[in-house]
Amino acid sequence: MIGDExxxxxxxxxxxxxxxxxxxxxxxxxxYSPDSHPIHLHLIEQSQLVGRWHVGRxxxxxxxVPGTIGPFExxxxxxxxxxDVLDSDSDYITWVSTFPIKGTTVWHGHMATHEDGVNxxxxxxxxxxxxxxxxxxxxxxxxxTLEQLNRxxx
Length: 154
Prior knowledge:
Layout (H helix, E strand, L loop, with lengths): L1 E2 L4 E2 L14 E7 L6 E5 L4 E10 L13 E6 L7 E2 L1 E4 L3 E7 L4 E7 L2 H4 L11 E6 L13 H8 L1
Antiparallel strand pairs: 1-2, 3-9, 4-8, 4-10, 5-6, 5-7, 5-9, 10-11
């Protein structure tokens, strides 16, 4: 499931990601599953992997155990540059995206078994609405420095 910092959210719940048209945003995705998940955002111009933080242990509710988060690791050369789909490994992954087109669309994992509900009796997994340009983004804090980003994921 994809959700916010407190809980998984299903596809039918209101959009929590509402970037402004033309904005750049840094997203950090926490993946505490044992599998890597390719992630794709629709209506974007480009995404770029910035780097990751490895998490050594997770609490039962999916939060990183303090003191087990490794140092920031920059994107390796083969994963840098503009991308259409970015892998969310079992750690924190961060990328930067620009949102050039207004509209309502989706962002989701690119694994067919999640997209069609095979694993969950028909419930759409790992897909959330994405609303670009309609209202001020209120769910995620604005991040202006690497230090602020480190505090958010640490």
